[in-house]
Fold each of these.
Amino acid sequence: MSKPKVIVTRRWPHEVEQRLGDHFDVTLNEADRPYEQQELRQALLLADAVLPTVTDRLGADLFAGGVRARILGNFGVGFNHIDIAAASAAGLIVTNTPAVLTDATADLAMTLLLMCARRAGEGERELRSGKWTGWRPTHLCGTQVSGKTVGIIGMGRIGQAMARRCHFGFGMEVVFFDSQPVPHPGMPARQLATVDEVLAASDFVSLHCPGGGENTRLINERRLARMKKSAFLINTARGDVVDEDALVQALRERRITGAGLDVFETEPSVPRALTEREDVVLLPHLGSATSETRIAMGMRVIDNLSAFFEGRTPPDAVN
Ligand code: DGY
């Protein structure tokens, strides 16, 4: 029997590409640049499985009129770049890679929180530019994190992993919002009834909800106004959860103290209004970027594909 035809839209870690090639008839994107829309459409027409990432926008137009592909194995946990309803209507199963990137992403959220609190980005820029004049008692003083309150928006796996780091590692109080009851959050933590209540109570707000849908611009001008003046906003979720213009305005007017962002509305372009500010820490979507995690994510995609083509339900089907 011939192997299912699989198109991978970006290069993956070597070990994963090797295993993929053992089981499937694989076409790799040798150039490792994002596919154009018509290339994605072609992929859906030519392959039995297409393996996209967050850089591929798979809107309803790509599925219109039917496609050959029967499964989309997304390399990543977030899938708001895929129109799930349209993919389902066209008969495709969509899978993602939950759980394997929880620790890496929570580590990066903690990195941003600490960098913001301790002005680490400012310090590094000062030193590298030769402007450091030596130790002095008032130099680049940041904010202590122990004893402060972190507010988690979205208490799923990553939110809980972040909360554990904050509570057990750094002695912080935890409050959170989640649209579902979370009876056993794994640490002493208070679930508050609204996002606004969490914003008002927190010294650091860390976003861990999915992007798209009702979460688009969840953190807008009105909600930023609920935050403490001394507070920081951390986003490792999706860029569209934050209204970037409103965030810049809040920073300019010193209505909040700073922000740590790993994700942006129109990646990879990042507004100049953000890159020119000292009070933000900006990273290029590195949440899951450890070698171990990226390998685990790829292997998870393969597990899902194998299940599907062997007639079993893929463990991480999202539709
Ligand atoms: C994820 O897994 O969702 C990462 O953000 C990359 O897509």
Amino acid sequence: MSLDKHIEKVLLSAEVIAERVAQLGSEITSEFSGDSDPPVFVGVATGACLFLADLVRRIDLPISIDFIRADSYGSGTVSNGSPRISFDLKLDITNKHVVLVEDIVDTGNTVSCLIEHMTLKKASSVSVCTFLDKPSRRKVYFKLVGDGKFYSGFECPDEFVVGYGMDFAEQYRNLPYIGVLKPEYYM
Ligand code: 5GP
Ligand code: MG
Ligand code: MG
């Protein structure tokens, strides 16, 4: 696509992504297949949109899907550190298993705020499935709820990435791969 001209390097191609998402899908399917109560997949808007759409099509269980929004980022590349829920769930998750679907866990602020929120809503377990993980940048060490597990698609180097749902100033979410922008576009 002609948008490719904005990208300095591709870190994860669409093919590599598809393969890993399929693996995650079967892993999560096996984890919950003995359970009579299938989980609620909660996509964290907007960044998790593409990952959620691909992931749930690889889950072979009668799951439900909902969305939540937690805002902490301005339009730049640095978090302001204190996320708040700006759009809440429609479904009642009391006594439900929740799988929080995230684009990336960076400092951990957002995911820890969301886990706390799901705890207050009395989810019976909270797992986190993040497409990317930047463990080198972690500031907050979150605890999963109940039998909750942490699933991660790929470890991400300490670079600001875009694509596959992830933005810079609300753009580039529609790229089908993960890449780093050319410096002249970070403006
Ligand atoms: P945290 O609260 O863990 O610091 O940040 C989580 C959010 O920051 C992510 O959901 C994502 O929206 C944003 N973020 C963190 N690192 C990156 C990155 O490399 N690229 C983009 N586009 N967003 C990021
Ligand atoms: Mg996010
Ligand atoms: Mg963002």
Amino acid sequence: VFAHLVQAPEDPILGVTVAYNKDPSPVKLNLGVGAYRTEEGKPLVLNVVRKAEQQLINDRTRIKEYLPIVGLVEFNKLSAKLILGADSPAIRENRITTVECLSGTGSLRVGGEFLAKHYHQKTIYITQPTWGNHPKIFTLAGLTVKTYRYYDPATRGLNFKGLLEDLGAAPAGSIVLLHACAHNPTGVDPTIQQWEQIRQLMRSKGLMPFFDSAYQGFASGSLDTDAKPIRMFVADGGECLVAQSYAKNMGLYGERVGALSIVCKSADVAGRVESQLKLVIRPMYSSPPIHGASIVAVILRDKNLFNEWTLELKAMADRIISMRKQLFEALRTRGTPGDWSHIIKQIGMFTFTGLNPAQVSFMTKEYHIYMTSDGRISMAGLSSKTVPHLADAIHAVVTK
Ligand code: LMR
């Protein structure tokens, strides 16, 4: 009965790793998926995560019972505090509901399904370009996906005018997906002044902000700085949704741990929103897993572990910034034609190089360098040892 099926294409991002794994070359380099690597090119388990896991193992009272549908309640509270700030009016007034979800993707999906079921506007505007999974998540959630201008290929920076025009033209009440920091794939973020203009425009038109926060602490190295745009929207008393992921900032990729928060106008509404979120979650996966959320809760509740985490996070962010500088320098010393200053201007895990699909495929074929076909490279996958190889490849492809 399935004989009519055609072979589906690999995922544009995760498929890069599949291709990389098949390549026997000793010089191969995976700059596709946004996953942190050490200077030795190895995945990193944070020291603070190991300590938290040890605590969990030592605690013989821990059981493997089902979590409630909303997940680990302490984790939810701590996650809301982390993203909105301990002094957030929404937390103080108890008008926020937070549910544990399966990392960023799961949080976006649950939020999308909730909006499709209960929000009067069914259109969500996403940035052009955006993370490849966004349009699929929201379409399958039952929303209509449209795009707004965001990136200007000419400047390799923000098309702020286009952004304001498109959001200004969106029907009142539309949902707008905003990357809280370290925009994926471009690494281009609005300034705080521009965020303020976006906020004013969105509030004046009743547009519903839905933040995707996948990189808190990774962009600037500071958890508070990276959460600032979200906090500006919460401070004005209006509603918003926030999807949080701990994949990158705690290195908990495979634990699938994240949270969806919905900031409401009153505690009473937040309670009813939560009751409806449970109806979205229960038929999807019943309740979320316990282990990853427990690790996060141990770290966030303990002052010492929390401080240790911020240091490890900063070290990861700093290593990425240093890779940007090294790659930029390597191209400069090679005299590679073109302006490569966007490598040091863009922030977060990715550089949107401006290389086109044909150039990317040349670099994969000739240099065994793997990246998404849109020219995005994960700076977190680079090391001092591999920068020269990448710079050689870029130089070769733009001078050929
Ligand atoms: C990425 O963009 O590389 C990451 O967010 C990983 C993923 O799931 O695509």
